[in-house]
Specification:
Helix content is 25%, strand content 21%. The strands form 5 sheets. Strands 17, 18, 19, 20, 21, 22, 33, 34 and 35 form a 9-stranded mixed beta sheet that branches. It has 23 helices and 35 strands. By secondary structure, the protein is of the alpha/beta class. α6 crosses α7 (320-326) and α21 packs across α22 (886-892).
């Protein structure tokens, strides 16, 4: 075998000498070659030029660096939002929903908040507590969740109360405005911040409005007050570009946020079509693409060292944000209702024909940028598979729970959308679009979605983890986990129970309620509520593309078994029968209540088909009466051709001569079998009272059956009920002018017979009014009229948001009140003195009025809400600290309401059967109506 021998040292030396000479020759060659290329007057680069080139190179590196938190983010010891004077807090004995493991991980234990962060969860090590001056809170087993995250809000830009000086939601300058920033319109004095916190909302993405195709840049804020009292102090991870391009470009970019909108809103504002919007988008993105390409070309030269004649980095303040969209550094929120997502994904016109054409070049595919979330998105549940073809992957879907049908593009929206989308693996978010839905009740959106079948874990994720992820902030928000922001909420009941309310909330570890008020809830509300089975309805919503049949099956005979209790009307009051074994109904009436034995003769006489309905421990109660919304006069609110319309205002112009002295009557404009009407009927609302829509003198209200097919089929309960007027500070005419006109009507003679009835004390005058000052004036006018005429003025206040301020005077005057905003909100100046209830105040409006002896009813102002009237009544009663019992709660939407409206005759004995629970809990589902008015039993199959 040959053996290799190392060469002698001398030989190795000669070899390295040859290598050295070769390297030296090459170096000299390049040196002289370079020198020959340089001008004779060449000078070395000065330090300023070198520094500038380094800045430019860093800027180029920054443009190509993905957005997101630093790798070592969770090694932070304190939050960047930490307020140094904040005491650490230990929450003990809590039931902690962490948000981990797809929302299924619940820990029984403690929670340490310190330096603006969650420091420990579950078993807190003792050494963590050493040398800390702790504030200790015993949760006594209460539920604790992350602070709620509202993905779609206009807090601070659509401020409460609404005043012209603080309208900053939309710009109306042009449809494409990516350079605008919601931050620049943020009002730190918005009264709704406190209300939102009182609903457990700790973080919100503040979007520009949807009047524009591109409305501008959005910003994420925490809702706590700050020592600085400026908008920038509220921001969460603001982009480094906030104050220009002069910052450390070696930092990893933070996520930016932007709002786009398609559909009816931009079309309405700018009198354009969807085709116009399409071109506006493409033109804007083409401008951004050109700027991006110029930047990339510039940076390619920088990286190649080709500095000669390079100039400055290409920038344009108008388009720089849109360039970042193309670079994938912007979490884009897109307002878009219909499944015709022909602007944003590979989906085109799939709403009614499911005719997808993925090959057709769409905006996100043409310009290659991702969408973080579609908002409103009422038809996405019809095309769940196609959403995956959006460029960059499927976005989150941010939905209302039930706010649909107010415009054509929302008409096919469904309460089953969240569960359907979830079943296809899509990320669902429930949002407020505050003030469309008062952000305080964001939790209620998730609770309703859960009622209609969204799983418990997903319902909770939809307000925490999912919106945080859609904003690119799930590394710090939306979970209870070590190292996350100390934003947590302690609840008085299970978060998905009816009316769940914070006991305490923390933002950045700072407690938000100094002396929180708590309404004691029954023990069963600490459990996640059982909900009905809506599988059949959800399948039909998909099958019929959002318009499933809603007309019930009608029968003449029905037997109800497993009934826990029956409430019936009795001489203007309610009577109760508990635990009947069987209920037999025929032709819209109960003909036997008792045992199978006592009702056997009745059963033997039934010779035709009988529907047997097992209520599974449910109840039968009087059907509720709807008031406050245009239900029966409106189908699609923003489509005039589907509505009765608004009456003329006699203070604005003379009425048409052909009308004479006759007042407008709602009965003449009624329309039946509308979707909101039928859904309300299926929700246990059997009667509606509606007045014409308008300002000042609105007209005469009517009472009708929601189950009737048209006006001539037993629809009319009472044709003419009350005279309705509205007096508000928001009218173009002064309040004193409105009062003077009302005084003239009352003290005058002649005119409509209902007006004469008001003058004679036979009919009721219902005044839509919210201001306590105007109510006081009306009470004075009532006394003046009665002293002058010796006749009684039957007066009712509707709306009455500030009526708690003079509850005793209202009771003393014998005036009734219909609260039409049981979720109080200071929308206008004459509603600014609301009584919000727990946790902000011990008292709420309805209990205060009842305690004063006022006859109180509850109504709702939105037609889509009518179906959930029973839940609103329940929420009011649960927040009353036990002062409203079950019979009183039932009366709020039945006999009390009807008395307030002055219904003269006896309301029909229309009864609603609920299976699986009570009318006032999430377990109950309306399954049938025993309608005396219609002479039949309607079964909801």
């Amino acid at each position: 075998m040959a053996i290799y021998k190392w060469p002698p040292a001398e030989g190795r030396s000669r070899r390295w000498s040859r290598v050295y000479l070769l390297v030296l020759c090459i170096a000299l060659y390049y040196y002289y070659a370079g020198s020959a290329a340089k001008p004779a007057n060449y000078l070395p680069l000065d330090s300023e030029t070198l520094a500038k080139r380094e800045r430019i190179a860093a800027q180029c590196r920054y443009t190509r660096t993905p957005a997101g938190p630093p790798i070592d983010f969770h090694s932070r010891d304190q939050s960047d939002r930490y307020a140094p004077d904040t005491k650490p807090t230990l929450i003990k004995n809590a039931r902690i929903w962490t948000g981990a493991e797809n929302g299924t991980k619940i820990i029984q234990g403690d929670l340490l908040l310190h330096k603006g962060l969650i420091k420990a969860v579950g078993n807190v090590p003792l050494h963590f507590l050493e040398n800390l001056q702790l504030e200790v809170i015993d949760a006594h087993g209460a539920w604790v969740t992350p602070g709620l995250v509202d993905l779609h809000s206009h807090l601070g830009v659509d401020s409460a109360p609404r005043l012209k000086g603080a309208r900053d939601t939309n710009s109306y300058k042009a449809p494409i405005l990516p350079w605008l920033r919601s931050l620049d319109g943020l009002n730190t004095h918005d009264e709704a911040y406190e209300l939102a916190r009182s609903g457990g909302v700790t973080t919100a993405q503040i979007l520009p409005g949807s009047a524009n195709d591109i409305g501008g840049q959005a910003f994420v804020i925490k809702l706590r007050q700050t020592k600085e009292r400026v908008p920038t102090a509220m921001l969460v991870e603001p982009p480094f570009t906030l104050n220009g391009s002069h910052f450390d470009h070696d930092l990893p970019p933070r996520w930016r946020h932007m709002k786009h909108a398609c559909g009816e809103n931009p079309s309405r504002v700018y009198s354009m079509t969807r085709m116009d919007s399409g071109w506006a988008f493409r033109s804007a993105y083409e401008s951004a693409r050109k700027l991006r390409d110029a930047q990339d070309e510039f940076c390619s030269k920088v990286e190649a060292g080709l500095w000669s004649g390079l100039g400055d980095f290409p920038e344009d303040l108008q388009w720089e944000a849109l360039v970042d969209v193309l670079r994938g550094k912007v979490k884009l929120s897109v307002h878009c209702y219909e499944a015709c997502i022909n602007l944003y994904g590979s989906v085109t016109c799939a709403s009614s024909r499911f005719a997808a054409t993925p090959k057709e070049m769409q905006l996100t595919n043409e310009f290659r940028f991702p969408v973080a979330s579609f908002h409103h998105a009422g038809e996405t549940y019809l095309v769940p598979d196609l959403l995956e073809k959006t460029w960059g992957g499927a976005p989150s879907i941010a939905l209302f729970a039930a706010n649909f049908r107010k415009k054509r593009e929302a008409y096919r929206g469904s309460e089953f959308a969240p569960r359907i989308l979830t079943s296809h693996g899509l990320s669902v978010v429930l949002k407020s679009d505050h003030p469309v839905v008062n952000s305080r009740y964001l939790l209620n959106e998730a609770a309703l979605a859960h009622y209609y079948g969204l799983p418990e874990n997903v319902a909770l994720l939809s307000m925490t983890v999912n919106p945080a992820r859609a904003m690119g902030l799930d590394h710090r928000l939306g979970r209870i986990q070590e190292g996350y922001d100390a934003d947590v909420v302690i609840w008085d009941s299970h978060p998905l129970s009816l009316g769940a309310t914070p006991v305490q909330a923390f933002i950045d570890g700072i407690r938000q309620f100094q002396t929180p008020e708590v309404s004691i809830k029954p023990p069963f509300m600490q459990r996640c509520p059982d909900t009905p089975n809506f599988d059949k309805e959800a399948a039909e919503a998909f099958e019929y593309e959002g318009l499933p049949p809603l007309i019930p099956k009608s029968v003449q005979h029905a037997i109800f078994i497993n009934v826990s209790s029956v409430y019936t009307r009795s001489n203007g009051d309610l009577s109760l029968e508990e635990h009947p074994e069987v209920i037999v109904a025929h032709g819209g009436e109960i003909i036997c209540t008792g045992t199978h034995l006592t009702c056997s003769k009745t059963l033997d006489e039934v010779d035709d088909e009988v529907a047997v309905i097992d209520l599974e421990g449910g109840v039968i109660v009087p059907g509720f009466t709807s008031y406050g919304s245009p239900l029966g006069l409106t189908e699609i609110l923003l489509e005039p051709s589907t509505n009765d319309g608004r009456v003329y205002n006699p203070l604005a112009r003379d009425p048409p001569a052909i009308i004479g002295d006759t007042l407008i009557r709602a009965i003449d404009g009624l329309q039946f079998e509308g979707r909101d009407m039928l859904l309300a009927y299926r929700g246990g609302v059997t009667a509606g009272v509606v007045a014409p829509s308008g300002e000042f003198v609105q007209g005469i209200s009517t009472a009708f059956s929601l189950g009737a097919s048209h006006l001539l089929r037993n629809a009319t309960i009472e044709s003419d009920i009350a005279l309705h007027v509205a007096i508000t500070m928001n009218d173009a005419r002064s309040v004193s002018t409105q009062i003077a006109a009302l005084r003239h009507l009352l003290f005058g003679t002649g005119g409509d017979e209902v007006l004469e009835g008001v003058r004679n004390g036979q009919s009721t005058l219902v005044v839509d009014v919210n201001s306590a000052d105007i109510m006081a004036t009306l009470l004075r006018l009532k006394a003046e009229y009665e002293n002058h005429t010796s006749k009684t003025l039957r007066l009712t206040f509707a709306g009455a948001s500030e009526s708690h301020l003079l509850a005793d005077e209202i009771a003393s005057a014998g005036v009734s009140v219909i609260v039409t905003q049981p979720k109080p909100y200071p929308n206008t100046w004459d509603e600014r003195r609301i009584l919000p209830g727990p946790p902000l105040t011990a008292d709420s409006l309805v209990p205060v009025l009842l305690a004063a002896g006022v006859n109180v009813g509850i109504g709702l102002i939105n037609e889509f809400e009518a179906r959930h009237l029973r839940f609103e009544v329940s929420r009011v009663s649960f927040s009353a600290n036990g002062s409203i019992d079950l019979p009183t709660a039932l009366k709020l939407a039945t006999t009390n309401l009807e008395k307030a409206l002055g219904i003269h005759g006896t309301m029909p004995q229309d009864l609603v059967a609920y299976a699986g629970g009570h009318a006032f809990d999430f377990g109950g589902k309306a399954v049938a109506v025993i309608s005396e008015q219609l002479g039949r039993i309607d079964v909801f199959e």
